[in-house]
Write a structure and sequence with these properties.
- The structure holds 2 protein chains of 2 kinds.
- Chain A has 2 domains: 3-94, Elongation Factor Tu (Ef-tu), domain 3 (Beta Barrel); 105-215, Rossmann fold (3-Layer(aba) Sandwich), CATH 3.40.50.
- Helix content of chain A is 20%, strand content 35%.
- Chain A has 6 helices and 15 strands.
- In chain A, strands 10-9-8-7-11-12-15 form a 7-stranded mixed beta sheet, with helices on both faces. A 6-stranded antiparallel barrel of chain A has the order 1-2-5-4-3-6. In chain A, strands 13-14 form a two-stranded antiparallel sheet.
- In chain A, a hairpin with a 4-residue loop joins β1 and β2 (19-25).
- In chain A, α4 (170-182) packs parallel to α5 (195-208).
- The two termini of chain A are 30 Å apart.
- In chain A, 52% of the residues are buried.
- Chain B is of the alpha/beta class.
- Chain B has one domain (3-293): Aldolase class I (TIM Barrel, Alpha-Beta Barrel), CATH 3.20.20.
- Chain B has 10 helices and 16 strands.
- Chain B has helices at 74-81, 83-89, 102-113, 135-138, 141-154, 170-179, 218-231, 245-254, 264-267, 271-285, and strands spanning 3-5, 8-10, 14-16, 39-44, 57-60, 63-66, 93-97, 118-124, 159-162, 185-187, 191-194, 196-197, 202-203, 209-213, 236-239, 258-261.
- Classes of the chains: A alpha/beta, B alpha/beta.
- The A-B interface holds A 1-4, 42, 47-52, 89, 91, 218-219, 221-222, 224-231, 243, 248 and B 19-22, 26-27, 29-30, 42, 50-51, 54-57, 59, 61-64, 66, 68, 71, 214-215, 243, 263-270.
């Protein structure tokens, strides 16, 4: 159940250039969090009315809440100034996470900081599989060792070829799907990243006749379903369409639900 | 702390602004909504309405600009899906209504009059984000008078038009609305606004323009409430940029009988309750025994 908690900063760890992991003491919130859920952070030091910022949960450890962020704007730059002991107002856990009992071989597809909820998921899924991480360059490829330590096989693709194979992450994805198909296995896709990637992953899930769980990254305002800023056109099983709220009805949807 | 807002009996003068609190249930786990003076819900028209494409909002210094576009479930959907929870709160429910014709506004009012638990109607004649309806009615005093009269004939519920801030003389609209049968007036709605992405040279909002809310508009709202109070014979519900008790108290001094917390709900969902406690403390500190003693007390 969601709460508005005053968290305490434990520390920040630099990852690659521009990317950081922020650890906070979040009793009552961290223990309840599920992979794919997010938190809504009131960044201290911004003016009183600055909107909260949503972040996928990167992981939890007891009462510790871990977030992954990239310094891209005013909010995340200010977050970067947080030091141990600083109080941070956090609402969470919010939204619906990934299902934790896959019917097929789990195949995780991350784009950039979309790796955050998948790293959390990798530690909670009962079976291990392959993680595909894509990014513009090597700096956008995160958490590789974290996945490997959990027993996952990691494959990397970067657009500029600075790490792993050159090109989009959908290239190794297609190869993995073909391999599983030949082996007679049914995959189950889990993905988080930019809309273009999610759409590509969703199309492949539908083609392969397997389930594809996509975590949407939308700008949000309230985070609880009240303001209707982060809506998405969706399709019910009977084919009728409706407009859902990514924060409340998602952020994770099955590929067939989304009307792009 | 009791306030009678034109027939809407509030146990205290604090409600939430339409569109910033969903239908109450969304925030119920974070805020004790039963402590509010009233719950004002998101705008409803006759049929479900999809609203605008995304992006629907952008943050700006001192607030945000939104163009949600009045997405909503329609009257039947609202009554079926949202009223059951609202009835359990025991708090007056103010429904914000809109339409694209006088007939639609009147029909929405007529249907809501039959829904148990609806305490009053806020007539949205000032939304900057829908092409027809909304602002088309709100910026012409004759159109306001005609619309209010039409809705008045359709319902006995307390009727509270929400006035547009972007008019040359707010007093004309106050007079037009109250003479046509309004029981209270709400002001202000968001200010029409626009933000451009200089790299793409395109408007940031898909709707191109939207409504500015947040602390940036508070002094504008205070001035309009003060002017409206000079000619108003009905109670005023004031809103625009409240982030704490101070802004709310300013509104009361300027002439408002009650206040609504809007954009601040998104940042601190308990703002409305902090405002309530702050008003109580202020009244005690100044030896006032009722909100009415503060209303219009500007020297």
């Amino acid at each position: 159940m969601m709460k508005d908690v005053t968290c305490r900063v434990i520390g920040q760890t630099p990852l690659t250039a521009g990317y950081w992991a922020l650890d906070m003491e979040a009793p009552g919130l961290a223990e309840a969090a599920q992979p794919g859920q997010f938190v809504h952070v009131r960044v201290p030091g911004l003016e009183p009315i600055a909107l909260r910022r949503p972040f996928s949960i990167f992981g939890t450890e007891g009462t510790t809440l871990k977030l992954l962020y990239k310094t891209v704007g005013r909010g995340t730059s200010q977050m970067n100034r947080l030091v141990p002991g600083d109080p941070v107002q956090v609402i969470g856990p919010l939204g619906n996470g990934f299902p934790l009992e896959p019917r097929g071989e789990p195949l995780l597809v991350a784009g950039g900081y979309g790796v955050a909820p998948l790293a959390f998921l990798a530690g909670r899924l009962p079976t291990k599989g392959v993680v595909l991480i894509g990014g513009r360059s090597a700096d956008d490829v995160l958490a590789v060792t974290a996945f490997e330590r959990l027993g996952w096989t990691v494959r990397v693709a970067t657009e500029d070829g600075s790490l792993g194979e050159t090109g989009l992450v959908t290239v190794p994805l297609d190869r993995e799907l073909a391999r599983l198909h030949e082996a007679g296995a049914t995959p189950e896709l889990f993905s988080c990243g930019p809309d273009g990637l999610l759409r590509a992953v969703g199309e492949r899930a539908i083609q392969a006749g397997c389930r594809g769980w996509l975590s949407l990254d939308k700008h949000m305002v309230c985070g609880v379903g009240a303001c209707l800023a982060c809506v998405q056109r969706l399709r019910r099983e009977d084919g009728t369409e409706w407009i859902g709220r990514v924060c409340r009805d998602g952020p994770v949807f099955e590929a067939r639900e989304i009307v792009w | 702390m009791r306030v009678d807002l034109g027939g809407i009996r509030m146990k205290n003068p604090v409600t939430v602004a339409s569109g910033t609190f969903g239908y109450g249930a969304e925030y119920a786990k974070l805020v004790d909504v039963t402590r509010l003076g009233a719950i004002t819900v998101k705008g409803i028209r006759l049929q479900p309405w999809p609203g605008n494409p995304l992006p629907r909002h952008v943050e700006v210094p001192g607030g945000m600009v939104n163009a949600i576009g009045l997405q909503g479930p329609g009257v039947e959907g609202f009554a079926r899906d949202y009223m059951p929870f609202l009835r359990t709160t025991g708090v007056p429910v103010i429904v914000n209504i809109w339409g694209t014709s006088e007939e639609e506004y009147a029909e929405v009012a007529r249907r809501l009059s039959e829904v148990e638990g609806v305490s009053g109607l806020e007539l949205n004649i000032s939304c900057p984000n829908v092409k027809e309806g909304g602002n088309a009615f709100g910026t012409d005093p004759r159109a306001v008078a005609s619309l209010v009269a039409a809705v008045r004939r359709a319902t006995r519920l307390p009727l509270m038009p929400k006035l547009a801030p972007n008019v040359p003389d707010i007093k004309l609209f106050v007079r037009a609305a109250q003479e046509a049968g309004a029981d209270a007036l709400a002001l202000i709605n968001t200010l029409p606004a626009m933000v451009i992405d200089i790299e793409t040279r395109r408007p940031v909002l898909a709707n191109k323009v939207g409504g500015l809310s947040g602390p940036a508009i508070h002094p504008v709202a205070v001035k309009l409430v003060w002017e409206a109070a000079q000619v108003a014979r009905v109670p005023l519900l004031a809103m625009g940029g409240i982030v704490g008790p101070e802004e709310a108290i300013e509104f009361l001094i300027a002439g408002a009988s009650a206040v609504a917390v809007g954009t601040a709900n998104f940042i601190d969902p308990t703002t409305s309750l902090r405002v309530l406690e702050g008003i109580e403390a202020y009244l005690r500190r100044h030896g006032m025994n009722a909100v009415a003693a503060l209303t219009g007390s500007l020297l």
